[in-house]
Amino acid sequence: MPELVAAHHAHQRLLRHPRALTAWTTARAITIRWYDHQQHLTHRWHTRLARLCAANPHLTTTHSASPTLLARDLVTYPGTVTLAGALATLPDQPHRDTDKALSLIAQRLGLPRLPLNANDPLRVFLTHTRH
Q1: 95-to-86, 92, 106, 120 alpha-carbon distances in Å
Q2: CA pair distance 88, 45, nearest whole angstrom
């Protein structure tokens, strides 16, 4: 899948950034929560999961676990890399504009906007964390 290869290359570039580890850890936790709760990138992830299952029939036949769980890391990988890149490069501001940051992140993720409730892990990160 071309998006996985592109994400891998972007991830390799991200690793050179001084905030890469924190950004990656945060982004992975956020995208896993979004995936498990079917938020924000759900259509994209369902499409990728279907393509992965079609290309790898053993995902649906040889394991007792759900393909949704087995393929979660691959399905979320491109979005996680994109989110980590956005988080790593956000301006280092103690009182950054959360809505502006959300707009930038939505744009990077290819979404028109990111409607987040107060408990969404991305909003919590943006409002309570300084880089």
Answers
A1: 17, 9, 20, 19
A2: 23
User: What is d(CA 85, CA 88) in angstroms, rounded to the nearest whole number?
Assistant: 5
Here the tokens at position 26 are 């945060």
pTM: 0.87
- CA distances to 38, 57, 80 from 32, rounded to whole Å, are 9, 23, 9
- Whether the predicted pLDDT of 22 surpasses 60: yes
Measured distance CA(122)–CA(27) in Å, rounded = 8
CA angle 9, 11, 13 (to 5 degrees): 75
Angle at 35 between CA 95 and CA 40, to 5 degrees: 55
Q: Which amino acid is at 53?
A: C
Token pair recorded at residue 20: 């890469």
Residue for token digits 């999961």?
49
* Tokens encoding 5: 């290869």
Q: For residue 111, what are the contacts with CB-CB under 8 A and spacing of at least 6?
A: 40, 41
